[in-house]
């Protein structure tokens, strides 16, 4: 199993450009998450999904959009990139078994907006 | 939501036990304590979790006080590869069956040769 994979690893965007961060998991997990991590800070939840066709906002959803058409894929879309979106983005997945579950994280995408 | 408090940084000698404390005085009775770590530039990695009993796995041990207001993660024989930021997280239940993890700043553990 590859686990959680993310592409690209690095990207530089100009202000106002758009891009999609890709995330794929091969563990048949129904829950998937997008986090961002600013320098020296902890992770903040952007969006999450509990299954195909279902998404919901996390702590910091402004400026982002997501979709979940399949169990495996959970892309994150930035429509109008801003310098405040410079960050490292992590995708994660889990298969919640009440009351506990473990989240598995991808290697991250390092995004710089200039 | 229960919050956690951890020291900003700690040092440990290679081969010695590393004991990382965490305070979670407002934890609810059905909330679990999770530990993750993040090695530089990598995604977070799950270590261990527990409710009220002490837990041990191949990576670490978790000691939770009887009143559940604090816990300690123990790495029995720290190696240089254990240098990382360690996050203590209390499981948050946010509507329906959606369990989300809230990451703070964690503790930077530096293992010295």
Number of helical segments with 4 or more residues of chain A:
0
Low-confidence segments of chain B, given as residue ranges, are: none
Structure class of chain B: mainly beta
H and E string of chain B: EEEEEEEEEEE
- Beta strands of chain A, count: 11
Q: How does the helix and strand content of chain A classify structurally?
A: mainly beta
Cα-based radius of gyration of chain A, to the nearest Å? 13 Å
Average residue-wise pLDDT of chain A: 92
Mean pLDDT, all residues of chain B: 90
Topology order of chain A in helix (H) and strand (E) letters: EEEEEEEEEEE
| Portion in strands of chain B | over 45%
What radius of gyration of chain B results from the CA coordinates?
14 Å
Query: In percent, how helical is the residue content of chain B?
Result: under 10%
Helix content of chain A: under 10%
Give the DSSP E fraction of chain A (strand runs of 2 or more residues). over 45%
Q: Sheet bearing the most strands of chain B, described?
A: 5 strands, mixed
Total beta-strand segments of chain B: 11
Characterise the protein shown here.
The complex is a heterodimer of chains A (114) and B (113). Chain A is an all-beta fold and 114 residues long. Chain A has no helices and eleven strands. In chain A, strands 2, 4, 5, 6, 9, 10 and 11 form a seven-stranded mixed beta sheet that branches. Chain A is globular, with a radius of gyration of 13 Å. The N and C termini of chain A lie far apart (36 Å). With 113 residues, chain B is an all-beta fold. In chain B, 0% of the residues lie in helices and 46% in strands. Chain B is built from no helices and eleven strands. The radius of gyration of chain B is 14 Å and the shape is globular. The N and C termini of chain B lie far apart (39 Å). Classes of the chains: A mainly beta (114), B mainly beta (113). At the A-B interface, strand 5 and strand 10 of A face strand 4 and strand 10 of B.
